[in-house]
Design a protein that fits this description.
Blueprint (H helix, E strand, L loop, with lengths): L23 E2 L8 H4 L7 E2 L4 E3 L5 E7 L3 E7 L3 E6 L2 E7 L2 E7 L6 E8 L8 E8 L4 E2 L8 E7 L1 H4 L12 H7 L6 H8 L2 E7 L18 H4 L22 E5 L2 H4 L11 H23 L4 E6 L4 H13 L5 E5 L16 H15 L7
Parallel strand pairs: 12-13, 12-14, 14-15, 15-16
Antiparallel strand pairs: 1-8, 2-3, 3-10, 4-9, 4-11, 5-8, 5-10, 6-7, 6-9
């Protein structure tokens, strides 16, 4: 059987489709501003009447009173799930500029959640808020959860092709079967009742991308951005994002393919550059979030030893809240697209990660 480390591919662009049976109509959000009526923990840029974003797994939560709710979107690239009162009622595939309506709800107060399923770093997504059906009202946004977790990673963290029934996938199939909301990251956060960010970018590595592609950039090029397709963009933390835990799972793309002729690496220099960049990235996180945040460095496959070494060195230098987790891949089937984690794998990993976290003195 081929190793999953040699079979993982980079995600490709999505196509234009629309699924679901709810009506599509035009409406305008309430005039108090989108952020006032929708809770999100994701990296968004607040434009008043619209929130813009790029990362996968970004979600918006609201409350309405009435028999229907509209979701205002402008997104030609990404897919979404719409959830009402905890149940998924529609999947929107590259919806474009619409207001998607969910109608026929029982009279009363309802919760609504919109979540971006896949990674579309070449595009900017826009959410224009929730609107109530005639006779109803948009209520105050839900309160933020007291726990916050930030996940840093690549396609494995983004949930690349995790709903696929086959390892062989076209680019369109990858897009349709990727769902960050059922990734190990989202599942772990929900188990811990935490708000979360999934800052994952398929195909990117700490210093080297998949198969040596785009050598002028890597994951760290994009980490600070809210809008991935805008060079130089910098996300401004509104002051509410103070994660008690940051999970870093980067290295698969650095090491899953052999160094090609013409790349500026030897195996030894790549490993050294990876360890140096990894240590610097952890220091960046420490400076950003302070000494109280637990940093969890994930090791797997051919890069596990390098991550463990970095954590050991930082611990020896006095960082008391950095930890190493050796990802246990026992019984994973890797039947997602291109040998990525399947939905079952993500559930197993969430169980294992949650169990490991239970033993850490995290300051929530």
């Amino acid at each position: 059987m081929p190793s999953p480390w040699t079979r993982m591919l980079v995600a490709s662009a999505a196509s234009m489709l629309l699924l679901g049976t709810s009506a599509v109509a035009t409406a305008a959000p309430d005039d108090k501003g989108v952020a006032a009526s929708a809770h999100t923990a994701g990296r968004v840029k607040d434009g008043g009447d619209v929130l813009r974003y790029s990362w996968p797994g970004v979600y918006f939560e609201g409350r309405i009173r009435g028999t229907g709710v509209g979701i205002v979107l402008d997104d030609p690239a990404a897919d979404y799930d719409v959830q009402v009162d905890g149940a998924t009622v529609a999947t929107l595939v590259t919806p474009g500029k619409i207001t998607h309506w969910v109608t026929g709800l029982p009279k009363g107060v309802h919760t609504v959640r919109l979540v971006k399923r896949n990674d579309t770093p070449w595009a900017t997504s826009a959410f224009g808020g929730f609107v109530a059906a005639p006779g109803g009202a948009v209520l105050a946004r839900p309160v933020a959860r007291s726990r916050q977790i930030e996940f840093v990673g690549d396609s494995l963290t983004a949930g690349y092709g995790n709903l696929s029934a086959s390892r062989d996938c076209t680019g369109e199939q990858v897009a349709r079967t990727t769902n960050a909301d059922v990734s190990y990251a989202a599942l772990t956060a929900r188990r811990l009742r935490a708000d979360f960010q999934i800052n994952a970018y398929s195909g990117r590595g700490m210093v080297r991308n998949y198969n040596g592609g785009s050598p002028e950039e890597n994951y760290r090029t994009f980490y600070d951005r809210a809008l991935l397709n805008v060079p130089g963009d910098v996300w401004q933390n509104p002051g509410t994002w103070r994660p008690g835990l940051v999970v870093v799972h980067l290295g698969t793309n650095d090491f899953s393919t052999p160094v090609n002729p013409g790349e500026p690496w030897t195996d030894e220099s790549l490993a050294a550059a990876y360890r140096s960049a990894y240590s610097g990235f952890l220091q960046k996180l420490r400076t950003r979030y302070g000494p109280g945040t637990t940093l969890l460095a994930v090791g797997a496959g051919p890069f596990a030893g390098h991550v463990e070494q970095v954590v050991r060195e930082r611990t020896g230098a006095g960082d008391r809240r950095v930890r190493y987790w050796r990802l246990d891949d026992t019984n994973l089937d890797h039947t997602g697209c291109h040998w990525h984690y399947s939905a079952r794998d993500h559930r197993l990993l969430a169980e294992r990660l949650t169990s490991f976290l239970a033993g850490l003195p995290i300051r929530w």
